[in-house]
Amino acid sequence: MTENQSGNENQNAGENASANELAQLRTLLIDRPPMARELPAFEVDEAPAGPGELFVQWLLGAFRAGVPDAQVMVLSTAGPDGRVLVLRDVDPAAGLWWFAGDADSPKGRQLAAEPRAALTFYWPQLGRQVRVRGTVQSGEAAAAAEQFRLLSPNSRTAALVGRQSEPLTGAEEFRTAWAQAAAELAREPRTVAEGYTRYAVRAEEVEFWQGAADRRHVRLVYRRSADGWQRGLVWP
Length: 236
Description:
CATH topology: Pnp Oxidase, Chain A
Shape: globular
Mean pLDDT: 91
Distance between the termini: 60 Å
Largest sheet: 9 strands, antiparallel
Strand content: 25-35%
């Protein structure tokens, strides 16, 4: 066997392995449908008048059910991509969902240019999804600083490192920047990352989606109006 023949056989073996993996994936996509398990019911008639109250109930339910990272959500702005962030607070009475970010990051710049966003929560164990859409407002700097100082040391160090989405030459550059930020935090524990900002989505529409194993999903939508919240079912 020549060296070229051996190389070709190795390449073919790699291609076959990929083809086998793709075949396995396609089988699993058919044989393992989502939501094929017992899921909680959604009694729409018992839903509260405002979406904030229902959201609090659902999020608490997710925590109690042991859903990992139940407070994690996807933030979608006017840009083409979404980003995974953490919910920091919710104000049911005002219909505000709070999160934080770097005003100088791509998402921060997008929010400055077009202050509208959507938040998406998904709790697989419960088959539940919540989507919040509305305008975005910035919170006070003092409140942002107070919140920043309550974060874990690693979260504060990461925020001090900053440079989100900028090119990175390698792991060593990141390690150096991290060590410098950690040292700065150790010297000045009350340091707040420049650009750290509290944002709130003032909801105009909130949708609650409850999946069902028999595919008869339930979708309840709240819409803000001059008279308060209006709600109604939509086709799943």
